[in-house]
Write a structure and sequence with these properties.
Elements lengths: L14 H11 L6 H8 L3 H18 L3 E6 L2 E6 L4 H10 L3 E3 L1 H13 L2 E2 H8 L4 H9 L3 E6 L6 E5 L1 H7 L17 H11 L43 E3 L1
Helix pairs in contact: 2-3, 5-6, 5-7, 6-9
Length: 239
């Protein structure tokens, strides 16, 4: 008898646990043939196992279910828990950016692509924690490396444009009068490299936001060009 091209010659693992493990990490529905090929079991056995798992989850009252949608199988949260899931998903969106994060985001927006060292030099503080927050929030992304220093460069994302309601960076308001000129910027970069007396502190800004952060703490750091102090938070405050 010819070997089924859609399955392996030898089963990879016990069928039902193997299916659960694969479906748990998949971000898209998987069809029966693909699943059979991965686990090394006949398609008919995979069909029976998937149906049995789906029924078992329902009988046990689990918070998730296994559905066959659009020709593929995938885990979904149950409809009766939609309110809980919605609250969890929207929770992070209720966290507002602090003044520190907004200032850092503004520098990236107007100076991009820009390195962390340059942003730190402009703001006069170490911005590592705030930059990580902006990256995690999808407002900033990596944009290659600086040819001279090799440092990572950063730019704003399309999500940033969406959140502030513009279609391109050309629509950003004129901000040049409020930013340092190139001479001032080069001086700050020299200080950041240790060539002068002043430099942004090496202590990173804390990443995590806290519920009890002082509402005015973001504005309590040193002036943008003082080169002293660190930000009191990682860039978010909870409303």
């Amino acid at each position: 008898m010819a070997e089924d091209p859609d399955t392996l010659a030898v089963a990879v693992a016990e069928l039902r646990p193997a299916l659960e493990a694969i479906l748990m990490v998949s971000d898209e529905p998987l069809d029966r043939v693909r699943l059979a090929s991965v686990v090394g079991h006949p398609v008919e056995e995979v069909d029976d196992a998937l149906a049995a798992l789906a029924e078992e989850y329902t009988q046990q009252g689990r918070g998730f279910e296994l559905r066959n949608v659009a020709g593929g199988w995938r885990f979904y949260s149950r409809a009766e828990f939609a309110a809980v899931v919605e609250g969890f998903v929207l929770e992070g969106q209720q966290a507002r950016l602090t003044q520190a994060a907004l200032e850092t985001l503004s520098v990236v927006a107007y100076k991009q692509p820009v390195s962390r060292a340059r942003v730190s030099a402009i703001r006069g503080v170490n911005v590592d924690g705030v930059m990580r927050t902006l990256l995690n929030r999808g407002l900033v992304e990596e944009a290659g490396h600086d040819e001279q220093s090799g440092a990572n460069l950063y730019r704003t994302t399309s999500y940033f444009l969406e959140r502030i309601g513009i279609t391109s960076l050309d629509e950003l308001p004129e901000l040049a009068p409020y930013l340092p000129d190139m001479d001032d910027l080069e001086d700050e970069l020299a200080h950041a490299a240790g060539l002068g007396e002043r430099a942004p502190t090496n202590a990173p800004e804390p990443e995590a936001a806290t519920d009890n952060a002082s509402p005015h703490s973001a504005s309590s750091h040193a002036s943008p060009h003082s080169g002293e102090g660190t930000e009191p938070d990682g860039g978010t405050e909870i409303t």
